[in-house]
Design a protein that fits this description.
With about 425 residues, the chain is α/β, with parallel strands linked by helices. The protein folds into two domains: about 230 residues, Spore Coat Polysaccharide Biosynthesis Protein SpsA, Chain A (Alpha-Beta Complex), CATH 3.90.550.10; about 150 residues, 2-C-methyl-D-erythritol 2,4-cyclodiphosphate synthase (60s Ribosomal Protein L30, Chain: A), CATH 3.30.1330. It is built from 13 helices and 16 strands. Strands 1, 2, 3, 4, 5, 8, 9 and 10 form an eight-stranded mixed sheet that branches. Strand 2, helix 2 and strand 3 form a beta-alpha-beta unit. The longest helix is centred in the N-terminal third of the chain and has 15 residues. It is elongated, with a radius of gyration of 25 Å. The chain binds cytidine-5'-triphosphate (CTP) and magnesium ion. Cytidine-5'-triphosphate binds next to helix 3.
C-alpha cells in the first residue's frame, strides 16, 4: 500500500467506486463502466462527481483486464479536479459479484481512513452534493448512511399476473449510492458476511447496524438498460453534465461550461367522434357534445400535450408510458395524464417551461371556455398551458366533422 504525496492532507474518507461489472443488461460490447456517455466513459463521468465532492482516497474496482483503462480515467478525472488529487487514486481488480468487488476495494483502503463510501460507477451522474450529504451524516455520528429517493410510482404486490394488494408507497424508498459507513463497521460486516446482498446497506443491516437515510438525487439513477444510457446521454448533452460543469469550475485551466439550452418537443393527436358518453376535451367535460373514441377518454388535446412534453425531455411518447397495457389509464381524464407526465419529466431532471396547444375542430366552440380549459390543464401539468382553436374551412376530416385534431409544442429546461 503506498502513501499519498503530502501535497494535500491524508483524507479521512475513502470512496470505493465499483466498476467491475460486465453490464449484461446494457448489452454493450465493452464492460459497462467503459461504455461512452459522450466522449467520456461512464466511469469517467462517475469519477468527476467523486472528485468534485469532498477530498477522499479513491479506490476504483475494475475488471482485471481493464485496470489500465480505469487508471487512465481516474488520473484524468483527478487531474481535472486539482493538483495532488491523482496521488489519491488506487485501482484494484474486482470479483465475480458486486460484493466481492467491494471487498477487493476495502482491502485497498488506507489505514487512517475513518469513513468509507461505496459508490456504483453505473450511477455516473451523481452530483457531488450527495457525497457531501453522506459524509456530513457520518460525521454527525451515524454508522451507516443510505441516500434514498421517495417512490413516485404506485406500487402493487403481484403474483401470477394478478394484483394481490396495493403497497403504501409512503413507507417505501429507492436506495441509491454512495452509501457511507464508519470504516470499522463496514470492515466487520464484510468479514462476517456469509450470504450475498444486493447492496452494502443491506449487508451492514444484516449485521445488526442501524442505517440512517439522507436525500438522494434524481441524477443518481443507475445506468442499467440501453434506455438508461440514452437518458444519461440526453442529460449530458442537454445540461453539459452537472459534474462536468463543477469540475470545469475547479479546474486550473477551466474550459467554458457548455450553455444550458432549453429543449422543444411537439405532439399531435387525433380522435374520431363515436365514443360512449360525454365529450371530454382539454380537461373539460362538454355536456351535449358528441364523445370521442379512445382507450382513455379520447382527450386529443391532453394527449398531444403529453407527447410534446415527453418528446422535449427525450422520454419517448405517450405509448411508452401510458400504453393500452396500463389499465389504470382506461377512461382516465387529462389530469391523470398530465400529472404523471410532469412527474416523469421532473424525475428526468427537467422543468417544464410552457405548452401551447391548438385544437382543429368544428365543435365544440372553445371561445367561451378557453380560460377554463387553460386553468385546468395548467393546474394539472404544473406549467402554463395556452389553448387556441381553429376550424379548417370545411376541409379534411375535422372540416367534415368526423373527428378532432390537436397539435402541441412544449418547452422544457434542464434543471442544472
Ligand atoms: N459491479 C462490480 N463487480 C461485479 C458486479 C457489479 O464492481 N462483479 C459494479 C458495477 O460495475 C456497477 C455496480 O456494481 O457499477 C452496480 O451493478 P450493476 O448495475 O448490476 O452492473 P453490472 O453488474 O455490470 O450490470 P448487469 O447486472 O446488467 O450485468
Ligand atoms: Mg449486476
Amino acid at each position: 500500500m503506498t502513501s499519498p504525496a503530502p501535497l494535500i492532507p491524508v483524507p479521512r474518507v475513502t470512496v470505493i467506486v465499483v466498476a467491475a461489472g460486465s453490464g449484461q443488461r446494457l448489452g454493450a460490447p465493452a464492460p459497462k463502466a467503459f461504455v461512452g456517455i459522450d466522449e467520456h466513459t461512464i466511469l469517467r463521468h462517475a469519477l468527476r462527481g467523486v472528485f468534485a465532492g469532498p477530498p477522499a482516497q479513491v479506490v476504483v474496482v475494475a475488471p482485471r483486464e481493464r485496470a489500465g483503462d480505469a487508471l487512465t480515467d481516474a488520473r484524468e478525472a483527478a487531474h481535472q479536479a486539482g493538483p495532488g488529487r491523482a496521488d489519491l487514486v488506487t485501482v484494484v481488480a474486482g470479483g465475480t459479484t458486486r460484493q466481492e468487488s467491494v471487498s477487493a476495494g476495502l482491502a485497498a483502503v488506507w489505514p487512517d481512513v475513518r469513513f468509507v463510501l461505496v459508490h456504483d460507477a453505473a450511477r455516473a451522474l451523481t452530483p457531488p452534493e450527495v457525497f457531501a450529504r453522506v459524509i456530513t451524516a457520518l460525521e454527525s455520528g451515524h454508522d451507516a448512511v443510505l441516500p434514498v429517493l421517495p417512490v413516485i410510482d404506485t406500487i402493487k404486490r403481484v403474483a401470477d399476473d394478478a394484483v394481490i394488494e396495493a403497497v403504501d408507497r409512503a413507507s417505501l424508498a429507492a436506495a441509491q449510492t454512495p452509501q457511507g459507513f464508519a470504516r470499522a463497521v463496514l470492515d466487520a460486516a464484510y468479514a462476517e458476511a456469509s450470504t450475498d446482498h444486493t447492496d452494502d446497506a443491506a449487508l451492514v443491516q444484516a449485521a445488526g447496524v442501524a442505517v440512517a437515510t439522507v436525500a438522494g438525487d434524481d441524477r443518481s439513477f443507475k445506468i442499467t438498460t440501453p434506455a438508461d444510457l440514452e437518458r444519461a446521454r440526453l442529460l449530458v448533452a442537454a445540461a453539459g453534465a452537472d459534474a462536468a460543469t463543477v469540475s470545469a469550475r475547479v479546474s486550473p485551466d477551466p474550459l467554458p461550461a457548455p450553455p444550458v439550452l432549453p429543449r422543444v418537443g411537439m405532439g399531435t393527436d387525433v380522435h374520431a367522434f363515436g365514443g360512449e358518453g360525454a365529450l371530454w376535451l382539454a380537461g373539460l367535460e362538454w355536456p351535449g357534445e358528441p364523445a370521442l373514441h379512445g382507450h382513455s377518454d379520447g382527450d386529443a388535446v391532453a394527449h398531444a400535450i403529453v407527447d410534446a412534453v415527453l418528446a422535449a425531455a427525450g422520454l419517448g411518447d405517450i405509448g411508452t408510458h401510458f400504453g393500452t397495457d396500463q389499465p389504470e389509464y382506461a377512461g382516465a381524464h387529462a389530469a391523470a395524464f398530465l400529472a404523471r407526465t410532469r412527474d416523469l419529466v421532473t424525475s428526468a431532471g427537467f422543468a417544464i417551461g410552457n405548452v401551447s396547444v391548438q385544437v382543429q375542430a368544428n365543435r365544440p366552440r372553445f371561445a367561451a371556455r378557453r380560460g377554463e380549459a387553460e386553468a385546468v390543464l395548467t393546474a394539472a401539468l404544473g406549467a402554463p398551458v395556452t389553448v387556441s382553436a381553429t376550424t379548417t374551412d370545411g376541409l379534411g376530416f375535422t372540416g367534415a366533422g368526423e373527428g378532432i385534431a390537436a397539435f402541441a409544442v412544449a418547452l422544457v429546461v434542464p434543471a442544472v
